[in-house]
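Subject: for your reference before the review

Hello V.,

The reviewers asked for a structural picture of the protein, and I figured it would be easier to keep everything in one thread rather than splitting it across files. Below is the amino acid sequence we used in the manuscript, unchanged from the supplementary table.
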Amino acid sequence: MLRKILPLFLLLCLFAAPVAHAASPDLPPQAYMATAKQTFYYFSPEILAQNQKEKKLIRVGWFDLSGIFQKRQGKMAGYAADLLQAVSAYTGWQYEWIHTTIADLPAKLASGEIDLVCGISYSPEREAAFDYTSLPVGYECLTLHVAANSPIRFMDFRDFDQMRVGTVRGAYGGKVIEEFTRQYQFTFRPYTFSTKKEMQEALRRGEIDGYIDGSLHGDNAKIAAIIAMEPFFFVTAKGSPLLPPLNEALKQLNLYSPWLLASLFDGYMHGIQQVSFSQTRAEEEWLADKPRLRVAYSEQQAMMNDHMPGSNFLIRFMEELSRRSGIAFDYVSAPSYPEALALLKEGKADIISNIFAGLGMYASQPLLVSRPFFDMPVLLVGQAKAVPGRRIRVGVTHELLSFGQAYMAAYPEDTVTFYDSMQQCQDAFKRQAIDAYIPGYPNASGVMPVNPPNASMLTTRARYPMSLGFRYDISPYAMSVLNRSIMTMSTADIDALLLERTAPTPGALLLDILREYSLELCIGGIILFAVIILRVLHVNRRHMRELEEVAYRDPLTGGNNRARFIHDAHKLLSHTQAPHYLLLVNVRRLKLINRTRGHRGGDMLIKLCYRDLRKQLRNNELIAHASAGKFLLLWQCRDVAELRQRIEDFFESAAALRQKLGTTVLFSCGVTSTMPYDGNMANCLLRAETAESSVADDSYRSSYTLYDARLEAVLLKQNELEDRMTGALRNGEFQVFMQPQHNLADNSLHGAEALIRWIPPDGKPIYPDEFIPLFERNGFIRELDLFVLRTVCAWLRQRMDAGLPVSTVSINQSKALFFSNDYVKVFLSILASYNVPTSLIVVEITESMAWLDEELFKNSLAELKACGVRLALDDFGKGYASLAALQSFELDIIKLDKAFLDNAASDEAAADVIIGSVISMGKRLRLFMLCEGIETPEQRDYLTRVGCDCGQGYLFARPMPLEEYSLYVDAHATRPDSEAKTS
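And here is what came back from the structure prediction:
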């Protein structure tokens, strides 16, 4: 759940406000507006449309920075990733993530290796090297973390003196820390580390006493000091053309989506889960006296009623807060909420159980307010035509004073009237004096008030960030201890308290009704009571359905959403021993479908997929639309064989979607067994996500993977490769090998295929099937493809300058390159920079690329052809799209897959017909035919006999380094002017 987080940090910074001021004495006034010059870059509709069409690739540097950057299944997530995705709505940018360190940023930005970095704090030295965005994009707290069992107290400078403190090399904060230690007259002994992980390991081993970090979250650590709060920015190289559109996009986001940064801050930067704090020495002494505080609450508030099972969220929250803080609470009731507020004013209570922050000044005696602990939605009951924010009249009771204040904060244009009772609210609604009213606590499961029959439940954007209200003269230790104790409660902790308070069983509800209506039972007798029971059950059920509709319904499909699926799956699996499987089904290429057929086409696809998946459900099975093109399924199958058959049946039925949408629809599916169920749905989901992420995304058919513990090892290996890939390219670990191609008629050298090899310093090669699929998924394949092209061009140019013979070279180009808007321009510019004729380069494409059949892809091929570049279809015959590709694209060369020759060994007669027919067809289409994987003289002779032009394989030569291939060309050259030879 989202929390309004900024008030929290204002409270936290009460500890460090003088520190922060003293720590930055020489920061210029424009530090928060890091670029003094104003830039204007208006995003007109025409510019937006052009940006979305061009899809410019931006290289973003990332490093070890908590919350800002997070790797999930090999993909980048976190604050920066989400914010840049929002920026893309204006700029059309796509991103490639390049790992780096803070120390390397200036050089990489200056060299153009990366274009953009997030999470950089301001300093005059950095401003000399970078250009900052004009607006900050977030805030981080400079915090001191110590071991979880450390005796060091919070903000106790005597404990801090001579501490061994770690910092990440190159990280900002050195001057702030110097000022901090100087002001409070103690000394840190500094230790520097390359990464945060190394620093945390050093703390775990006891080599340091603490470390400085920009996040509240720590691994097995607690916070001993909050030193300062600093804004951070995007930075670019000096004079970068990216800065004006980036500045304007950030300005637009602040204007039109002001909630975005707050929600990102709450979701990633606050690090609320697993946060722990030290106590100050004075707090420890205060707590040693076992303090008791008086908590005021309204008797009308069901959520503070411990005698109503399922309706006591607030009382349970206060009990948990007492356990964590060590403060005992005594509860003081009042007839109403305003009277509970008055108890604080009169000194008869210290805390009120819940309050909206704005009420702190609304009260006749100002109150202090804690950080929010629960973000409650504000609902309306009203006319169907009533639209919040359209100057409607809204009623609310004084009992719901905080709700009313929260609604007015969200919709100041509406008129809000306060009434003494809910009955008065409803009477005003019936006589049309108001258009809508705020009902009772929307999540309480006690008896709900009866709404008028002509009223509907209306959703709003208003949120009530529920906080504790403190008497103004309460002990400062109470406030600081309780605030930090609230911070230790994770979202999961709050959810657990809410689940305890969800709708009770029918029997428990009946007991609640008996308590509530005991008087009616005595007076009206059994018949009247039965009528009341039925009526109340009906009304309560209707209200709960309305609430569930808001909380658990997916608006696109009309079915259950992810939250409801998890709830129902946990309940089902906890009460069955039958074997179940969790499936995560992902519609591949949904973004492409949205782009080519519009979001209406994408929405239709999701609805059709949901319909087909739902048809396959049996008893005790579940389905939900989780997000975008992802669906969650819980299937009951006897064994894996039945599971596989059901998946294949769905894939088969999905083929019908092609006829409805006019495009091929493919799925990737991750599957995991849920048995034995350990009560943790999060682990099941994680296993399914792991399995789905391992499905190859370049396949021409729908695919699925069953989770296996070995997949985790594969992911760890992939993460390791991703961490190493950029440095490996920079350090020359990637090498270009050549595999010769020979004309079959006379065995002369025709050319070669350029292949990439990864050879680390230890000499143990990393095989292409380990890194190529991974780099295709994360986009790094673009860098490798261009590296191969530049290396090949440099080799050709070197030999031509020396007057040595050269041969044509085939290079593989990934779809990641083809689907960038400036691919052809980049490709031709590289050839031009080396002055290499286009006739010497053959571009190989694969069937899976041809199968995509996207207009941009066909346009790129046409541009290459127009410039004299020849095109080869690689791996012909491996899939189902080969013949369609021959018809759709203007190709020059067909490369028969090695599978043709492998099949010939098992069925010579059939292979003879198939291979002969394919080659004959290619000849009639005037295509040059080349076969891969030739390993025996018999295969060569057979291919020669059926008319194949060229061959490649171990019979002729294995792939070899460029230096060795140069000697090979010299040995097989027929004439020195062969550089102009074409096939």
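For the response letter, the relevant points are probably these. The first helix runs from residue 6 to 23. The domain at 281-375+467-500 is CATH 3.40.190.10 (D-Maltodextrin-Binding Protein; domain 2).

Happy to draft the paragraph if you're swamped.

O.
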